[in-house]
TrEMBL record, chain A:
InterPro entries, sorted: ATPase-cat-bd, ATPase_P-typ_cyto_dom_N, ATPase_P-typ_P_site, ATPase_P-typ_TM_dom_sf, ATPase_P-typ_transduc_dom_A_sf, ATPase_P-type_domA, HAD-like_sf, HAD_sf
Name of the featured protein: Heavy metal translocating P-type ATPase
Keywords attached to this entry: Cell membrane, Ion transport, Magnesium, Membrane, Metal-binding, Phosphoprotein, Translocase, Transmembrane, Transmembrane helix, Transport
Similarity field: Belongs to the cation transport ATPase (P-type) (TC 3.A.3) family. Type IB subfamily.
Key word Ligase present: no
Organism this protein belongs to: Pedobacter montanisoli
Signal sequence range: none
NCBIfam families in the record: ATPase_P-type
From TrEMBL, chain B:
Cross-referenced Pfam families: FixS
Protein's name according to its UniProt entry: Cbb3-type cytochrome oxidase assembly protein CcoS
Ranges that cross the membrane: 6-26
Signal peptide (residue range): none
Gene field: ccoS
Organism of provenance: Pedobacter montanisoli
Annotated InterPro entries: Cyt_oxidase_maturation_cbb3
Length: 793, 59
């Protein structure tokens, strides 16, 4: 217990980071940085320390606060607000930082901070908070600033994630399931006496039961099963047969026979009809399961801010991105993104084009040069003149190309089987009917014809696919592999080529090795540590962690230039740390990035950040090489080619210095050669290629980070499971085929009765649920077995 | 035995009421978020400032 409490002491009370050298404390609690302390102070002043009672170190470290001036513009805020009347406004934000019960507590007690916020509700899984406030007393901007100030900055982007998601909830399907379940339960109740044979007394009720059953079948057929009829009619119009065609036919036949049974007071098929529709809808529901917290359809709009500062007559005015026109003058501050292709007019531009090219070192631009959208300015504020609106920029052009997929979508197993199946059923039904008609038994002919169609129900096929694939989906998601939907799981089994991006995909962005190119004395290390200690830049903190210095010295004349570096006088010695352009004189070093150190006007070396290859990369590539054709597309220089040659086979195609458009074209060319391509990439620079490929997987270290539109999102730590994932989806298809075989056996038994025209409704009513239960239990057992075999459970 | 006709009517009526209750709850958004309320109910009522703070330090 004591050891644990000591451990707690060494962590920041707010965010749980290591305390390194800090002596920042408040209320006897220690903090890693001023930001964390300020949050604590703010919360304790507002009587909200319960926040820390529910979890240890629930906070998140606050990066630089954003600018929210644009939230004062009614034109912009109108898009964000859910509802507004004369007094109250309701707004919903997506807040990625929500992660624990303390977050819920804090955000639902915002009224303690400001009375004007009278209600706030969290949806934990969606990471959304709905806030109601009185807009006469508090502005939207102030609300957002309060949220940002306590470490919960909402993500406000051009593509409004919040509104897009709320539409996806399919309530009408749930309503249909409820109605079908209700009717099925009641029909079963009335059909039950019939299962055991009717006594004389019960025969009185049979007529009533028949009509009641028919009454329950009407909503099931015309409301719950409506989509099947619609789908069948559209596909028949196109001269195609999909799985819904035979299903619609069966439902229709069952309904007609139930009606006839009610009129002539004979046993009816109502229980089969309602049960069938209920199960089919359940299958549909299982298939539709989605991830609330992940968006697969993000494009550049969710990366771009919602507004940008435009200079008009010397004044800044926040303007929505889509209203920016050619000739507008933009003001871009440190850390802000350039939203449209423009010409540099004023200031020193150092652009981090990491998202566009994958290149991590910032590039310098000179006055009059064109800067492309997607770059992030590092350093002082610059002024630009727009030459192309945001939607037509070089980068966003990746999304506008309409000739993307040449509809390579394969017809899935279900629909291809459905065709054969339907034809076979019709042949059997007609031959049975004509046989009996030939024997002058027209009643039996009708009975045999309808019975064959009823018994040969492909509902098992309709159910086995969603149940198997969604079981696989949940196995995947336990290993942090999030596939868009069940159709995508099926497609995962059909590739012959895998293309990798390098930076961020094969290397990890979070685990980086820091090493110093030369040697520093212990005293010099102390000097560097004392300087870096003053800075909150992530790189400074990373270097500081590797230094492990216990004491720090007093600094004077400290100066930090954003995005460039630091300098100060320590112990009477001038110390510089930062990028090359911060240094007092030109230095000659092979390293472009990293933290360069100059002490006493002498260049000492550089803390170089080396990206680390993902673990088990060797084995992964080795395994994949046997089965697939591999390729590598990198936007980076070929500095790692030697190392990659060791891992990859000689034949593997490796292309370096690829622009986003070149990547896209490389994929296209492969597809043109008839290959089915799976692409693994990360940032925006792979977005085009991911979209073009037959199956795009976005690799990320944090699921909440920006990922471009794709078919699946894979957490970097699970990359080495890729061969297992592919194998499991192949095994899943095998399972579906076995299910199909089992269903055929049941169908043959049913057909034996059906062709004789002696199918008693009870047989149908028993046969169908039994076969369904067999299939569902078989799929779940088989999926678990295969998942275990592939080391995924 | 004609009482059975009445009982059958009752059973259907009851079932209908439950179905409508479900419709109402669905429309009302009660099934939209089934995770957060489970956490929310565990929060204590507000304790006075000094007390809650000291409690935590003593831990």
């Amino acid at each position: 217990m004591e050891a644990q409490s000591v451990l707690k002491q060494a962590l920041c009370y707010h965010c749980g980071d290591e305390l390194s050298l800090s002596k920042i404390s408040y209320d006897e609690k220690k903090f890693c940085c001023i930001g964390c302390r300020n949050v604590y102070q703010f919360l304790s002043e507002n009587n909200m320390c319960n926040y820390y009672a529910y979890n240890d170190n629930p906070g998140t470290r606050i990066a630089e606060l954003g600018h929210f001036e644009y939230l004062d513009e009614p034109a912009i805020t109108r898009q964000l607000i859910d509802y507004s009347d004369q007094e109250n406004t309701i707004v919903t934000f997506y807040i990625p930082a929500i992660h624990c019960s303390s977050c819920i507590w804090l955000l639902e007690h915002l009224y303690k901070v400001n009375q004007a916020i009278f209600n706030s509700r969290i949806d934990f899984l969606k990471k959304q908070v709905t806030i109601s406030f009185k807009h006469q007393q508090i502005s939207l901007r102030r609300v957002v600033e309060i949220l940002a100030g306590i470490g919960y900055e909402p993500l406000i982007s051009l593509q409004d994630v919040v509104k897009e998601k709320s539409n996806s909830v399919n309530k009408s399907l749930i309503l249909k399931i409820a109605v079908a379940g209700f009717c099925m339960g009641n029909v079963m109740l009335f059909a039950f006496p019939e299962y055991f044979g009717l006594s004389e007394l019960e025969k009185n009720f049979q007529h009533l039961f028949g009509w009641l059953n028919l009454a329950f079948c009407i909503p099931v057929t015309f409301y719950c099963a409506r989509d099947y009829f619609k789908s069948a009619i559209t596909s028949l119009k196109h001269g195609m047969i999909n799985l819904d065609t035979p299903l619609a036919l069966i439902i229709a036949v069952l309904f007609i026979r139930t009606t006839i049974a009610a009129i002539f007071n004979t046993p009816s098929f109502a229980d089969t009809l309602t049960g069938l529709v209920f199960l089919l809808l359940m299958g549909k529901w299982v298939k539709q399961r989605t991830y609330h917290h992940i968006s697969f359809d993000r494009d550049y709009r969710s990366y771009f801010p919602i507004a940008i500062n435009v200079l008009k007559e010397g004044k800044e005015k926040p303007t929505p991105i889509h209203e920016i026109v050619m000739g507008d003058r933009l003001l871009i501050r440190n850390g802000e993104l350039i939203p449209a292709d423009s010409i540099l007019l004023k200031g020193e531009a150092w652009l981090d084009m990491g998202f566009v090219t994958g290149e991590s070192d910032p590039q310098q631009k000179v006055l009059g040069e064109i800067v492309y959208a997607g770059g992030r300015q590092i350093g002082e504020a610059i002024e630009l003149e727009v030459v192309k609106p945001a939607s037509q920029s070089y980068l966003t052009g990746l999304w506008n190309k309409e000739n993307y997929k040449v509809s390579t979508k394969t017809t899935n197993f279900n629909d291809s089987v459905a065709k054969v199946f339907t034809i076979a059923v019709f042949v059997i039904a007609f031959s049975a009917a004509s046989y009996w008609y030939y024997l002058n038994d027209s009643i039996k002919a009708w009975s045999a014809f309808t019975s064959v169609i009823i018994v040969a129900c492909p509902c098992v096929i309709a159910l086995s696919t969603p149940f198997t694939l969604s079981a696989i989906l949940s196995v995947f998601d336990k290993k942090d592999f999030y596939v868009k939907n069940t159709d995508a799981v099926e497609q995962l089994a059909t590739f012959d080529t895998i293309v990798f991006d390098k930076t961020g995909t094969l290397t990890s962005t979070e685990q980086a090795n820091i090493h110093f190119t030369a040697k520093l004395t212990a005293y010099e290390e102390t000097l560097v540590a004392s300087l870096l200690y003053q800075s909150s830049h992530p790189l400074s903190r990373q270097v500081l962690k590797t230094l492990k210095i216990k004491t720090i010295l007093e600094t004077e004349h400290f100066e930090e230039v954003p995005g460039k570096g630091l300098k100060a006088m320590i112990d009477g010695i001038e110390v510089y740390a930062g990028s090359k352009r911060m240094m007092p004189f030109n230095i000659d070093s092979a390293e472009n990035g990293g933290v360069h150190i100059v002490i006493n006007n002498e260049y000492k070396g550089c803390y170089a950040v080396e990206q680390q290859w993902r673990k088990n990369l060797n084995q992964l590539i080795h395994k994949l090489q046997h089965e697939f054709k591999l390729a590598l597309l990198s936007g980076d220089t070929n500095k790692d080619e030697q190392y990659l040659k060791l891992i990859f086979d000689e034949k593997v195609q490796m292309l370096f210095n690829q622009t986003p458009h070149e990547k896209l074209n490389a994929i296209k060319q492969k597809q043109f050669q008839g290959e089915k391509v799976m692409m693994l990439g990360d940032g925006l620079n792979d977005a085009g290629a991911l979209k073009q490929s037959d199956f795009g997987i976005a690799v990320t270290d944090n699921i909440n980070n920006f990922t471009p539109g794709c078919d699946a999102i894979l957490k970097g730590d699970s990359l080495h499971y890729l061969p297992n994932f592919i194998q499991l989806s192949k095994d899943g298809l095998k399972t579906i085929k076995v299910c199909f075989a089992i269903a055929l056996i049941y169908n043959c038994v049913g057909l034996f009765f059906a062709v004789q025209g002696t199918l008693y409704p009870l047989v149908a009513a028993v046969l169908m649920p039994i076969s369904t239960i067999t299939i569902i239990s078989f799929t779940s057992v088989a999926t678990r077995y295969f998942a275990r075999k592939n080391n995924l459970i | 035995m004609s009482i059975l006709y009445f009982l059958i009517g009752c059973s259907i009526l009851m079932a209908l009421i439950f179905l409508l209750a479900f419709f109402w709850s669905l429309k009302n958004g009660q099934h939209d978020d089934v995770h957060t309320p489970g956490i929310r109910i565990l929060f204590d009522d507000d304790v006075t400032e000094e007390k809650s703070d000291k409690d935590h330090i003593s831990q």
